[in-house]
Amino acid sequence: MEIIKIGMADLGVAKPPSKLRTTGLGSCVGVVLYDHIHKIAGMAHVMLPESSLAKGGELTIGKYADTAIPHLIQLMVKAGAETRHTVAKLAGGAQMFAFLGNNDTMRIGPRNVEACKLALKDAHIKIVAEDTGGNCGRTIELDATNGILQIRTVNQGVKEV
Amino acid sequence: MGDFTKFGDFQFDVLREIGNIGAGHAATALSKLIQKEIDMKVPQVKIISFDEVADFVGGAETVVVTVFLRVEGDCPGNMFFILDLESAKHLLEQITGINKDVYEWEELEISALHEIGNILTGSYLSSLADFTRLNLQPSVPALAVDMAGAILSYGLIALGQAGDFALTIDTAFFEGNDQVKGNFFLIPDPESLPILFRSLGVPFDGDY
User: Does this entry carry the keyword Flavoprotein (chain B) (predicted)?
Assistant: First the structure.
């Protein structure tokens, strides 16, 4: 079994028996996709809501919800997945420092979650589980064998969705 | 916009000196608080990808105590004061006499750590403001006890809009027998770097 690490602003696809893992999600959102018929899993570590926020330079596709999610879907399809069998789960989007919430940049967690939902809706992919918001960091691991998403936090232990 | 790729040795030296001055004053303040000698390592100035930032403090999943503040004014950026859990426990014990493990911390313990972080980051920033004659205002500092990756990524959001790399000025400090050790992290916004250099009469690009 191989664990494929997804870094910040990165994305990737896996087949059984591999797992996809990303560590230390704060205000970033971990978007995972799973086609249970073809057993193909995908994960993106989204950092910002919209690519229109990019200030010049090269665009890193995996960084923004509106570019990462369509690209991840493309990779899944290329690997043999079908979007009609694909469902999504979301984790992250926390506000790590709660009382700085008046500033728009500091509200980035909730904005990331909203943007991911919008991009998934555009792609007609259903969200079947969600562990977002709050003020805790999360580490997530998606098992390509069964699509189970494991979510680990410092204070609340491990849960599976 | 700051393009760090053109920096020469001289620019890096200046940034290290900024780390030295700021963290030096903060270390002195810490030393007074706990009445013990605090040593500092030579500041490290690095241009690193976002993924590597958390490696400085032991990896993305390491649980740390962090006081975060936003630097506002002439030269905006983010600042972190980071302690591992054991160090935070020792620090609490030395300053307040409280001896509790992290899972027992309540409002009082959290508030004490918050205040310590406040004093130290404030001292870092005010010495930097004196040195550069720039107007640097701290935001209200916030405290979090959580995974380093989750906390530090928060300070990279503004940078994320401009690129995939951060310039970090990291100063590690430690008490003689290593009971308290931690890091001061300053991550200037890219557009702050030319302002910082100009304030010190240093050219922005090329090696001089």
Answer: no
